[in-house]
């Protein structure tokens, strides 16, 4: 049976790899060398300036602890503080830009300048108009001044109120919640769905409902903090594999199946593979078919967070669901 499972795993991996494949152009050698050289020079001068600040030859602009708090646990690690003082401050003017309009696709910026190398800023009174917004949490457009949208919001607030102030198990379940769940399920193409009010809590609070002690979580090294917190709260054993590396994943899964739980070596109650639909910390998406191939081959469970995944990838969902159903049928027949 194990041979059949391994064969099926390889077949499904080959099928999906033709449809889900990320390629990234490698930087030229001179670009990499100049980048590392620049970081090295800035770091070297940073340590030199720290020495000058320590002996009093250069003024220290960063916040410092009082003498009576020297024995307290430091708020930041030494390198984090070093990076903030000597590297981030040099380019700080590129971040946290104050705006003076709605955060739409195009907005207005308040011009500011610094007289002490970005430690402090002062506004000039000039406004920079028609700046393209390349990074905003307003990716759903709810903060824009749309008259039709505002009318709809006001109408729904009068109808349903600002909040239900109760859990859905008590008196917090409204008909509009059920309609939204049906709409989401129909949009994704699944039997049913469940909605939550916060994406972070969806991951961190529901993973403990899926796995617990005696279970194994196999997690991508670049998973979001909400997934990591949920895995820790579950009490399950956690193993981390290299980002989008199928060989690293396969090695962990083989060891998990062969060795079982620590000390007792009993089989795992559940093995859960956790990845993201689109990773927030890296511009990549997982080779979904490869994960599903492994799960179907040896009967693992698989979870993919799709917070930032549904909109750009919805065209591929029907194909993915069809292959999942086919994989389940094949595995069921082989297992029987």
Protein topology:
Layout: H1 2-17, H2 29-54, H3 78-86, E1 106-113, E2 122-132, H4 147-160, H5 175-188, H6 199-210, E3 216-220, H7 225-234, E4 237-241, H8 246-259, E5 271-276, H9 288-298, E6 301-305, H10 310-313, H11 317-335
Parallel strand pairs: 3-4, 3-5, 5-6
Antiparallel strand pairs: 1-2
Helix pairs in contact: 1-9, 1-11, 2-3, 6-7, 9-11
What does this structure look like?
The structure is a single chain. This protein is an alpha/beta fold. The chain is built from 11 helices and 6 strands. The protein has helices at 2-17, 29-54, 78-86, 147-160, 175-188, 199-210, 225-234, 246-259, 288-298, 310-313, 317-335; strands at 106-113, 122-132, 216-220, 237-241, 271-276, 301-305. Strand 1 (106-113) and strand 2 form a beta hairpin. Helix 6 (199-210) runs parallel beside helix 7 (225-234) and helix 9 runs parallel beside helix 11. Mean pLDDT is 77; it is low at 309-336.
Which residues sit in consecutive blocks of at least 5 with pLDDT less than 50? 309-336
Tally of domains: 3
Q: List the helices and strands in order.
A: HHHEEHHHEHEHEHEHH
- Give the assembly state of these chains: single chain
Strand order of the largest sheet: 4-3-5-6
Compute the number of helices.
11
The CATH architecture of the largest domain is 3-Layer(aba) Sandwich
The percent range for helix content is 40-55%
